[in-house]
Amino acid sequence: MDLNRRQFLLTSSAAAGAVGVGSGLTTRFWGLDGDPVHDPATDGDKVIPTFCEMCFWKCGVLAHVKDGTVTKLVGNPDHPLAKGRLCPRGTGGTGLLYDPDRLKKPLIRKGERGEQRFEEVSWEEALDRVAAKLKEVKEKHGAESLALFNHGYGASFFKTLVAAYGSPSVGAPSYAQCRGSRDVAFQLTYGAPVGSPEYLDIENSRVLTLIGSHLGENMHNTQVQEFAAMIEKGGELVVVDPRFSTAAGKARYWLPIKPGTDMALLLAWMHVIVKEGRYNKAFVEANTVGFEQLAAHLADKTPEWAWARTSIAPELIVETARFIAGAAPASLVHPGRHTSWNGDDTQRGRAIAILNALLGSWGAAGGFFLPSKLKVPPTALPPMPKPERKAPDTPRGAVFPFMDEGLAHGLRDASIPGTAEFDIKAWFVYGSNLIQSLPNPEKTIEAIQHLDFFVAVDVLPAEITGWADVVLPECTYLERWDDLAITPWKEPFVSVRQEVVPPMFDSKPGWWIAKELGKRLGLADYFPWESAETMVKARLEAGKYDVAAMLRTGVAGGKRAAVTTEEGATAVYGTPSGKIELFSQQMADAGLAPMPEYTPPEAPAADQFHLLFGRSPVHTFGRTTNNRFLSEIYAENEVWLNTRVAREQGFKTGDKVILVNQDGKKSAAIKVKVTQRIRPDCVYMVHGYGHTDKRLGFAAGRGADDTQLVSRVKIDAAMGGTGMNVNFVRLERAGEAA
Question: What's the whole-model pTM score?
Answer without folding.
Answer: 0.94
